[in-house]
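Dear H.,

Thanks for agreeing to be a second pair of eyes. The structure we're designing against is below in token form, covering all 309 positions.
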């Protein structure tokens, strides 16, 4: 964690970390409880009405009361979305605090103080467009523009907004929304990219035809991998373009590299199948070796449920 090794009084460090974790924990516990109740209620829906309905006395089943389920479910989803937004905001504040503490560590002479927050998001300097860590593949961007023609696109882990600017300038996509988990991304991108922490469940985003996620997954700590994948597929009506760094591929704070076969299996479990032909077309035009080897196009094979987003 980024706070490790901080030269502050231990009690102060415990209070700081404990307070952040406690607040976030309370939010997530409430979120999960509400989600569980929502699922139970949806499976018990027998009638949807604006008034209370009672079974007929002549019915073979016992008398049951059914509340206005549609309204109840709608309320639960609104509360779910509020909790999701709150969790995201807390993660942003926690990440910014961690990045500030990293800077303090450096000033105190700590040599290996890190450059990212505990969620994997890059701190301010590395999240800037002029950072040497960001590489823009114009050839791949052109091919993506053609693939996404007339589609609504959401980019998760966009970085400073290079792909957003390029695809919008090409004028082929219907819309393009960019998100990234770097704690200071809204400042470093001058508002072009919106903060979104992919290590907490994200809801109430726009529904996109396609989700783009390039070289992000390897930065997500393994314990958050399933949440990360759910965030991607939950908002993809038609498909996902995903590039996941392979094993032994070096990079800034790579903590979760995977072989292509394992990535394909994970996406299949989420209801997506790799489109070999479309994937090869993107690999062929890419400039950088990591896209030539890692990028794949996945198309949804399971029915899309908008209520889950």
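And this is the sequence the design step returned. I haven't edited it by hand at all.
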């Amino acid at each position: 964690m980024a706070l490790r090794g901080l030269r502050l009084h231990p009690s102060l460090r415990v209070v700081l970390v404990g307070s952040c974790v406690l607040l976030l924990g309370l939010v997530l516990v409430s979120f999960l409880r509400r989600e569980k109740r929502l699922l139970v209620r949806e499976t018990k829906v027998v009638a949807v009405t604006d008034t209370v309905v009672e079974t007929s006395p002549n019915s073979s089943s016992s008398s049951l009361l059914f509340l206005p389920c549609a309204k109840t479910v709608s309320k639960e989803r609104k509360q779910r979305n509020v909790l999701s937004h709150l969790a995201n905001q807390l993660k942003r504040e926690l990440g910014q605090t961690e990045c500030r503490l990293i800077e303090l560590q450096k000033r105190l002479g700590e040599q290996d103080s890190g450059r990212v927050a505990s969620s994997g998001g890059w701190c301010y300097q590395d999240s800037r467009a002029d950072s040497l860590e960001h590489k823009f593949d114009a050839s791949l961007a052109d091919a993506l523009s053609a693939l996404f023609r007339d589609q609504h696109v959401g980019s998760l882990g966009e970085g400073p907004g290079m792909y957003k600017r390029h695809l919008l300038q090409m004028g082929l996509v219907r819309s393009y929304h960019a998100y990234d988990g770097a704690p200071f991304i809204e400042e470093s991108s001058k508002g072009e990219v919106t903060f979104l922490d992919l290590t907490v469940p994200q809801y109430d985003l726009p529904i996109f035809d396609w989700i783009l996620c390039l070289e992000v997954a390897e930065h997500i700590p393994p314990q958050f991998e399933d949440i990360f994948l759910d965030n991607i597929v939950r908002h993809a009506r038609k498909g996902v373009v995903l590039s996941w760094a392979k094993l032994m591929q070096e990079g800034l704070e790579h903590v979760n590299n995977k072989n292509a076969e394992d990535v394909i299996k994970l996406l299949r479990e989420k209801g997506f199948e790799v489109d070999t032909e479309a994937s090869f077309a993107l690999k062929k035009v890419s400039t950088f070796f990591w896209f030539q080897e890692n990028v794949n196009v996945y198309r949804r094979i399971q029915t899309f449920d908008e209520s889950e987003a």
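Two observations from my side: The chain has ten helices and nine strands. Residues 124-300 form a domain with the Rossmann fold fold (CATH 3.40.50.150).

Warmly,
E.
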